[in-house]
Amino acid sequence: MIGNRWVLSAVCAGLALAGCDRSQQSSTAPATQPAQNEQVATSSDLATDKGAAPKADPATKPAALPEISTLLVRGETANAGDPGFLYEFPRARLHINHDDKTATLYTDDPKTAINPDYTGNSYYLVIPLKGDEPFNLDGYHWEYRAFGSQHQDSAEGVFRGGQRFHYQPTALRIDFKVEGARVLVAVNGEFSRFDLQQSNEVGLPVSVNGVVSATVDPSK
Predict the structure, then answer these.
(1) What HEC string does the chain produce?
(2) With a threshold of 0.85, does the pTM exceed it?
(3) Which domain holds residue 53?
(4) pLDDT tens string 77-99
(5) How many domains does the chain divide into?
């Protein structure tokens, strides 16, 4: 119950960043299945472990982690009551940079991701860390709002179809919950979707929501 409340509160806080009305249309049909339910609010039960560091006990075999991660995107069609589309991504990883005081949430992309014909999905989000204990992620959250709506040539954001579609955040909230050797990361926000094969395109406003289970990169 505690874990479910955390997920629901993280989702509600993220959805409160912007309204849910959608008036624009998308001419590209998403290449995945429609969401059957609120995937954002469903994840495995979360344990309350306040103050725990995202490190595994070397004497304990870590629990199996998902091979994929998923994000729910709404607003890509003009259909009334569109439940959105659930896109699959490679498994999530989290890199902590102690010098820059940042946590980078990214996909564990295959080696073929560098090929021009790669059509997989990915994300790369850099989250500033602050506070007296910036590397204690449990319960930490971060909010971001963009100024302006122009497309930025950046490696940050969510990408679909290889590098064809760039989802650029305009209002974003990230919440962290430590559970043993993994970190649950709730991503909730408004994005502008740009088709990089179309020049001078106005970004399509969409919402992106999901909870991914990330492993933390070893410290160097």
Answers:
(1) CHHHHHHHHHHHHHHCCCCCCCCCCCCCCCCCCECCCCHHHCCCCCCCCCCCCCCCCCCCCCCCCCCEEEEEEECCCCCCCCCCEEEEEECEEEEEECCCCEEEEEECCCHHHHCCCCCCCEEEEEEECCCCCCCCCCCCEEEEECCCCCCCCCCCEEEECCCCEEEEEEEEEEEEEEECCEEEEEEEEEEEEEECCCCCCCCEEEEEEEEEEEEECCCC
(2) no
(3) 2-216
(4) 877 677 899 999 999 999 999 88
(5) 1
